[in-house]
Amino acid sequence: MPDVFSYTFHMLIFPGGIFALCLGLLLKGVDRKVFARLQRRVGPPIMQPFFDIVKLGRKESILPASGHTPVFRFAPIFGFMGMLLALMVMPVPGVWNGAESMGDMLMMLYLLPIPAIALMLAGSSSSSPYGTLGSSREMMLMFAYEIPLLAVILAVAFKVGLGNGGIAEFSFAKVVEYQQVHGSFIFDWTMLPAFFAYLLFLPGTLGTAPFDLVEAETELLEGPLLEYSGPGLAMFSLCSALKMVLVMGLGVVLFFPGTVPGGWIANIVWFGVKCMLLMLFSITLVRAATGRLRADQSFRFYLKYPSMFAYASLALIFIIH
Predict the structure, then answer these.
(1) Intra-chain end-to-end CA distance of the chain, in Å
(2) Cα–Cα distance between 298 and 224 in angstroms, integer?
(3) Residue 189 has what pLDDT?
(4) Share of the chain above pLDDT 70, in %
(5) Adjacent-strand bridge partners of 92
(6) Average pLDDT, the chain
(7) Which residue from 25, 54, 77, 33 is spatially nearest to 272, judged by alpha carbons?
(8) CB within 8 A of 274, min separation 6: which ones?
(9) CA angle 39–42–47, rounded 5-degree value
(10) Per-residue CA distances from 83 to 55, 63, 126, 159, 179 (Å)
(11) Could you tell me which residues come within 8 angstroms of residue 86 by beta carbon, excluding any fewer than 6 positions away?
């Protein structure tokens, strides 16, 4: 019973739930503000994502007449719940070690694609041709960017496992512990290619430029989200905020999970700062400097460069050890 209570708390309050929602919406607000400043615009207030959620929650949800209503309603809930489960698994260094008994690193590989699957369900059930096209693009892109992610996870697992005298270690807690003793992987030259691969993975999984071909406003009019309004669209926005925290936090845990003195409050703030810095360099600056790639270009990109970097780290690890 205590374990059930603990996991429920970590899913609904911290690091998932309320904490992740607040941090995710704050990150999105900062991203929009900095992006506007880079384009010499004033931009919306940082709190605008919070205002948008409240506004959408008060509006009517309109269902497409010829769509598949049960799946259309279920898709945003499915994506949202999947992110809450994934955030429960993710550790916050110095505060929460993650759900160690659940095979967390392997479980994360199954939970991360849930928002993409939810978008596919949303688009295919909406009866909109734009939604169907967006769903097919999401499926193609997901297959492409999951390959380098798997290679990055393997590189980290083998680095920790071989360093501890074993084979591979698929525990986030062990990864954090190893780096606290031997130094962050971001300063290890054998792991730098894997870190670059993870940076390249982030825009694809978050659907931002140059890989924003799924919702592509000028082509697909938001694609899978075209028919959504009110609470359904708000749920997808919350799911996106949760995923922002998840993938940024995952990068922190895998490559620079160092802690600071000052107790759990200081480490929560430090975790949020690192997530924000990672977002600004990997998402905001890239989005401001690039245009949209075509679907075939995006697919080839992920099969080439991020995968090449991640496999290079794997090879270096085995050569050194």
Answers:
(1) 43
(2) 19
(3) 94
(4) 98
(5) 96
(6) 90
(7) 25
(8) 248, 252, 256
(9) 115
(10) 22, 24, 22, 27, 26
(11) 16, 108, 111, 112, 114, 246
Element (H, E) at 107: helix 104-111
Counting every residue written for the chain, the total comes to 321
How far CA 103 is from CA of 8, 89, 222, 248, in Å, comes to 17, 9, 36, 20
Question: What is residue 91's three-state secondary structure?
Answer: coil
Instruction: Measure the CA angle with vertex 284, ends 281 and 286; round to 5°.
Output: 75
pLDDT higher than 90, residue 216: no
* DSSP code of residue 165: T
The string of pLDDT tens digits covering residues 9-29 is: 888 899 988 999 999 999 999
| C-beta of residue 271 within 8 angstroms of C-beta of residue 155 | no
Residue with structure tokens 């603990």? 6
| CB neighbours of residue 3 within 10 Å | 9
What would the two tokens of residue 42 be? 């004033």
Q: How far apart are CA 24 and CA 2, in angstroms?
A: 28
Question: What pLDDT score was predicted for residue 1?
Answer: 40
205-226 in b/e form (b: 16+ CB < 10 A) is bbbbbbbbbbbbeeebebbbbb
pLDDT tens digits, 40-62? 999 899 999 999 999 998 888 88
Contact 270, 278 (CB under 8 A): no
Average pLDDT for residues 214-236, to the nearest whole number?
82
Q: What is the mean pLDDT of residues 107-133?
A: 88
H or E stretch at 133: helix 129-163
Structure tokens that stand for 254 in this block: 């895998």
One-letter amino acid for residue 28 of the chain: K
The SS3 call for residue 251 is: helix
Residue 303: predicted pLDDT: 87
Tokens of 132: 């169907």
Say whether pLDDT at 2 is over 60. no
